[in-house]
Design goal:
Elements: H1 2-15, E1 20-23, H2 27-35, E2 43-46, H3 49-62
Parallel strand pairs: 1-2
Length: 65
């Protein structure tokens, strides 16, 4: 249920022109979510907050966020 809600939120966010960066997701949790049939293509997942912030800053510098 949570995975589906995250997916729906990410899709709505994308329609508004933004991108969801989900942090703190361990690889095995991401695999479980995918195994449940939830498409994570609309989300960016990072293992920790620092990685998520670095990703967002890179995207902002290149103008692709």
């Amino acid at each position: 249920v949570v995975a589906v809600t995250l997916h729906q939120t990410a899709q709505a966010t994308y329609l508004l022109g933004a991108e969801v960066i989900l942090v703190g997701i361990r690889p095995e949790v991401a695999q479980t979510i995918v195994g449940l049939g939830v498409d994570l293509q609309s989300l960016v997942t990072m293992s920790d907050l620092q990685s998520g912030i670095e990703y967002a800053l890179r995207r902002m510098r290149t103008g692709t966020l």
